[in-house]
Design goal:
5-stranded parallel sheet; alpha/beta; Aldehyde Dehydrogenase, Chain A, domain 1
């Protein structure tokens, strides 16, 4: 039914024709800014008595769209609509469900530049960062569609027992909550959503209030490709007002969440408490950030490339990635020479409105994030040595300079706490033993990297560097669907490995059927 899975690849923005397509898409999307969007419950548009605006973080006076602030009663309505739809959706064949999401992937590819433009404007991402994410979102649709068909086949079981026939297969769970982040509002949002739905579940999709436009565009595509009404229900609003209602609802069967450690742990705790009328143990998939480290040793194969990787990992999308290189651990004998390279490269980064292709780094997501990061910069001045940046940028948006601190000590707040912004903490290590000790000393365990030519050190890192995604002699950000399944250890999350062969298991339950032959 489906051709073998293949990644969608990236757009070459050095070509004038692609630059023009992107400019045309930005102009088209800008003509739609400021519109009001409704909740979508059971396929019907629903208004609330309260709204909020999504704004452009690069141009904070520009309203992307106005969205409904859902109320607790809307969660009840969405849950009822989802379960009504589930009665039919769960009986669709895996092939029929997969075909819908494969069509969604094709339509997303057709509208790729438009999806890029929405994200550049709503999230403040550069062209190349946005394109990598939308490519991943498309890949999730196609990959999970094929995986759902594979899981739809009956599992092999031992039939040696006489006069009995045994079957083993997977069935969907029910209705779940999908709560994606604002920093990857296409890839993570559509990946979690499609995985849940293609396996036969219905969902209540509650995007971040900083990224509702991305989720709305995806839901609109699903409607166009024939997803039955009620399979996805689009609920917007602040998590503080409706999040607990959604997670704690007795009919919520599972929660797929990506966001902060604080919120993720709260969700896990709330979901673990049985509610009146609840008939199951809720499943929770949580990805909760990182304090990721890249180690560079004196025998690194290419110091210039390592410096590029450190800068790209620390400042790509203004450091607003759970996989960002927020800690750079350097063997002390190369520290000064290597930092000269890093500072030189970081100083060349252009910061400004990401509509302009020439700007490498845009804003942080909102005023609260900007102020939080500035408070950490003040902490950094007390705990280390400021060698680059440390200031806000243009007041038109929520801009910050690329910022680097050296002389950061293990155990300090700058070395331990996730900042989620363009701030790099540099730590000296006496030797490789010390570097590994530092790398493993936080509560997190998402991504990490090591630069060395010594294969024995690489093999040791495979055993001892405790992260879910470990990279050697390359950047520690950027994973590829189907090739580099992504998810972390410790308080980085439940390690369900998005984009991997096991991911769809979270959204299904296994059933064994035995029939005595008469």
């Amino acid at each position: 039914m489906f051709e073998p899975y293949k990644q969608s690849g990236y757009i070459d923005f050095s070509k004038p024709e692609n630059q023009q397509k992107m400019k045309d898409a930005l102009e088209k999307v800008q003509s739609h800014l400021g519109q009001e969007y409704d909740l979508i419950i059971g396929g019907e548009r629903v208004k609330s008595d309260e709204t909020f605006d999504s704004i452009n973080p690069a141009k904070k006076d520009e309203v992307i769209g106005t969205y409904q602030q859902a109320k607790p009663e809307h969660i009840d309505q969405a849950m009822d609509a989802a379960y009504e739809a589930w009665e039919e959706w769960k009986n669709y064949s895996p092939e029929a469900r997969a075909a819908i999401f494969a069509r969604a992937g094709h339509l997303m590819q057709d509208r790729r530049f438009e999806l890029l433009a929405w994200q550049v404007l709503e999230q403040g991402k550069s062209w190349f960062e946005t394109d990598a994410e939308v490519a991943e979102a498309i890949d999730f649709q196609n990959y999970y569609a094929r995986e759902a068909v594979r899981y739809g086949k009956q599992r092999d079981v031992d039939q040696w027992w006489p006069r009995e026939n045994n079957e083993y297969f997977y069935i969907p769970l029910g209705v779940g909550a999908i709560i994606p982040p604002w920093n990857f509002p296409q890839a993570i949002m559509s990946g979690m959503s499609s995985a849940a739905m293609v396996t036969g579940n219905c969902i209540i999709l509650k995007p971040s209030s900083d990224a509702p436009a991305q989720a709305y565009q995806y839901v609109k595509i699903l409607e166009e490709v024939g997803l039955p009404k009620g399979v996805v229900n689009f609920i917007t609003g602040g998590g503080g007002k409706i999040g607990d209602k959604l997670v704690g609802h007795p009919k919520t069967r599972f929660i797929a969440f990506t966001g902060s450690k604080k919120v993720g742990l709260h969700i896990n705790e709330l979901a673990a408490k049985k509610q009146p009328g609840q008939k199951w143990i809720k499943r929770v998939s949580a990805e909760m950030g990182g304090k990721d480290a890249m180690i560079v040793l004196k025998d690194a194969p290419d110091m210039d490339a390592a410096a590029d990787a450190a800068v790209q990992g620390a400042f790509g999308y203004s450091g607003q990635k759970c996989s960002a290189c927020s800690r750079l651990i350097l063997e002390e004998s190369i520290h000064d020479e290597f930092m000269d390279l890093v500072i030189e490269k970081a100083r060349k980064l252009t910061v400004g409105e990401p509509k302009d292709q020439d700007n490498w780094m845009g804003p942080v997501i909102n005023a609260a994030a900007q102020e939080k990061i500035m408070k950490y910069i003040e902490i950094g001045k007390e705990e280390g040595t400021l060698v680059l940046g440390g200031n806000k940028g243009s007041d038109e948006g929520f801009y910050l300079e690329p910022t680097i601190f050296t002389d950061i000590e293990p155990g300090s707040r700058m070395e331990q706490e996730e900042i989620f912004g363009p701030v790099l903490s540099v730590i000296k290590a006496r030797d490789y033993d010390h570097a590994l000790e530092i790398a493993n000393d936080t509560d997190y365990g998402l991504t990490g990297g090591l630069w060395t030519k010594d294969q024995a050190k690489i093999e040791r890192a495979k055993r001892e560097f405790h992260v879910g995604n470990l990279y050697f002699n390359r950047s520690i950000t950027g994973s590829i669907v189907g090739t580099q399944p992504f998810g972390g250890f410790n308080l980085s999350g439940t390690d369900n490995k998005a984009g991997g062969k096991d991911y769809l298991l979270f959204f299904q339950q296994a059933k064994t059927v035995t029939q005595r032959l008469v």
